[in-house]
Specification:
single chain, about 260 residues, mainly alpha, globular, V-type ATP synthase subunit C fold, about 70% helix
């Protein structure tokens, strides 16, 4: 994997000097298809894209706007229903999660848990850095779900929302936290994630705090793996996470410019 690691390090360095939005991540990673364990990244990008599409569908956002965040799944973004979205995905590994969810009412929390569960079932990397990437991603999903369940009360069963395969949050802790009052939930989660960015994020009422903290935790972990195993997958995983940070910064800047123009 030496050539892959070297190319990833070079691309990461170029991100810091970028004067334009970064290219599509999956278009770049498509050149590295021979490395099957990079599926931890590509399937994660698809999971996030499907999450954005489903949120847009629930909010009644027009199809052309849903396609903006859909990445390589743009062909499916215009689906008018969850069932049609699953159909358009064809044999995509995350399609069954949406097909099952389409049988009931559209519940974003349940759908996002189903997507994360499908991701965890299909990603079983041997590389230590890739394992950490997947496990921390699942931890972040579970932390957000526990907070949402606590805020919603007993509308959903916590055990059904738990995604196995995380690094820090055990199922029993998740269930207890999800059933507790919100302030207690935050304290329990902060204890479970002590020493990580999630410990502070779960105490915040800002909607995107847990997501951002999860990505920061994953990035910092891959930075350490990159130093300890420079010829493994960590340089590519670190590049992917840095790419996401840059892309998100560009999206925020574009949105701010659009709002300024509207005034």
């Amino acid at each position: 994997m030496t050539a892959l690691a070297a190319r990833a390090r070079g691309l990461t360095a170029r991100l810091d000097d970028a004067t334009a939005p970064p290219a599509d991540l999956l278009a770049v990673l498509g050149r590295w298809d021979e490395h099957d364990e990079l599926r931890v990244i590509t399937l994660d990008e698809d999971r996030r894209a499907l999450r954005a599409i489903v949120r847009g569908l629930a909010a009644g956002i027009p199809a052309e706007r849903r396609a903006v965040a859909a990445g390589r799944l743009r062909h499916a973004a215009g689906a008018p229903t969850l069932a049609e979205l699953a159909r358009r995905l064809g044999d995509h590994p995350l399609a069954p999660a949406l097909a099952s969810a389409a049988e009931g009412p559209l519940d974003l929390l349940a759908i996002e848990a189903a997507l994360a569960r499908a991701y965890g079932e299909r990603v079983r990397p041997a590389d230590p850095a890739a394992r950490a990437y997947a496990r921390q991603l699942i931890d972040g999903q579970n932390a957000g779900a526990a907070l949402a369940l606590s805020a919603r009360g007993r509308a959903l069963s916590p055990a059904r929302m738990f995604v196995p395969g995380g690094e820090r949050l055990a199922e029993a802790t998740f269930v207890e936290a999800a059933r507790a009052p919100l302030d207690e939930t935050r304290v329990r989660l902060a204890a479970a994630f002590a020493g990580t960015p999630l410990a502070a994020a779960v105490m915040s009422s800002e909607p995107a705090a847990v997501e951002r903290a999860t990505r920061a935790w994953m990035r910092d972990t891959q930075r350490r793996h990159r130093r300890l195993a420079p010829h493994g997958l960590a340089p590519a995983l670190y590049f992917a996470l840095r790419w996401s940070e840059h892309a998100e910064a560009w999206r925020r800047e574009a949105a701010q410019r659009a709002l300024g123009g509207a005034r």
